[in-house]
């Protein structure tokens, strides 16, 4: 069963991805902080599927930040 922290964190991560598409710098910080916290929680609960999902979101976040900095 996924706890409330993981639900809130994943929603923040998805919201961060949406903010990235709108070129909002707050989206990067929200996404990164929530994803790092969620990966730690998921690894502590040994939920490797959630940890992999958060890792993928972090890769999307890093790619968005790279494209945003290039402009």
Account of the 3D structure:
The protein contains three helices and no strands. The protein is mainly alpha-helical. The protein has one domain. The longest helix is centred in the C-terminal third of the chain and has 23 residues.
Question: Helical content, roughly?
Answer: over 70%
Order of helices and strands: HHH
Number of discrete domains: 1
Mean pLDDT: 67
Category from helices, strands and their pairing: mainly alpha
Unreliable residue runs: none
| H/I helix tally | 3
The Cα radius of gyration reads 12 Å
Largest sheet: none
Shape label: elongated
Number of E strands: 0
Strand content bin:
under 5%
Distance between the termini: 42 Å
List the keywords.
about 70 residues; mainly alpha; 3 helices; about 0% strand
Could you give a quick summary of the protein structure above?
The chain is an all-alpha fold. The protein is built from 3 helices and no strands. The longest helix has 23 residues, at about 50-70.
Topology:
Elements: H1 4-21, H2 25-44, H3 48-70
